[in-house]
Design goal:
Layout (H helix, E strand, L loop, with lengths): L25 H14 L6 E5 L5 H8 L4 E6 L2 H14 L4 E5 L2 H7 L4 E6 L8 H10 L3 E12 L10 E7 L2 E7 L7
Parallel strand pairs: 1-2, 1-4, 2-3, 4-5
Antiparallel strand pairs: 5-7, 6-7
C-alpha cells in the first residue's frame, strides 16, 4: 500500500497481513483521485471515510491537503494501524474513530463535502448506507458520496446517483447532494 500523491506521495506503508481489510488497489485509487482532483479542490474539504480499513483512502486525502478527515472503522487492529501511521506522519487533520459504521451514521450530525464508503463487497444492506447518508443530510450542498463496491452491483436507483465507474473487479458509484432549489 502506498500514498500516491501530495505531501506524503510515494510513501509505502505495510499493514499487518492480519487486518480484516481489502485495500483499494493503487490503480483504482489513482483513477478515483484523478476524477476527484479534476472535479473538486481537495484542500479545505471535510471528508468522512467509512469502513476505513487500513486507512488507505483517508491517508491519501490527508496527503492531498484536505483540512479534516474522519476515518471510521470497527476493527481494533485496523484502527491501531491507522493511528500509528497518523502519529508517525504527524497528521493532526486525521481523526480516527473506532465504531460500527451503521451505529456511527445514526448519531453523526456533522456535514461533509465528501464521504467515501468502502463496505465489504458481501454486505447485504449496502443500500442502507446511501439512504442513511441522504436521510440524515450528512452531505453539504453539492457534496459527494462515493461508494466502492463490486462491479456487479447496480446502484442506479439509489438517492442522488450520478454515475458509476468500473476498474477491474471494483466499481465506484458517485452520488451528489443537489437539492431541488440548488439545481
Amino acid at each position: 500500500m502506498r500514498i500516491i500523491s501530495g505531501k506524503f506521495g510515494g510513501r509505502r506503508l505495510t499493514p499487518s497481513g492480519r487486518l480484516p481489510a481489502r485495500p483499494t488497489t493503487d490503480k483504482a485509487k489513482e483513477a478515483l483521485f484523478n476524477i476527484l482532483s479534476n472535479r473538486y479542490y481537495l484542500p479545505d474539504m471535510d471528508v468522512l471515510d467509512l469502513f476505513a480499513g487500513t486507512g488507505n483512502i483517508s491517508l491519501e486525502f490527508v496527503s492531498r491537503g484536505c483540512s479534516s478527515v474522519v476515518a471510521v472503522e470497527r476493527s481494533f487492529p485496523a484502527v491501531r494501524f491507522i493511528k500509528k501511521v497518523k502519529t508517525e506522519l504527524d497528521m493532526p487533520e486525521l481523526q480516527v474513530v473506532r465504531a460500527d459504521v451503521f451505529q456511527y451514521l445514526k448519531t453523526e450530525t456533522h456535514r461533509y463535502d465528501l464521504i467515501f464508503a468502502d463496505p465489504p463487497y458481501d454486505l447485504h444492506n449496502f443500500a442502507d448506507i446511501v439512504v442513511s447518508i441522504f436521510e440524515r443530510n450528512l452531505l453539504k450542498k453539492k457534496g459527494c458520496l462515493i461508494v466502492e463496491h463490486s462491479n456487479l452491483v447496480n446502484t442506479a436507483g439509489l438517492p442522488g446517483f450520478r454515475e458509476k465507474r468500473q476498474y477491474g473487479q471494483s466499481g465506484f458509484s458517485f452520488f451528489e447532494n443537489t437539492p431541488e432549489d440548488d439545481v
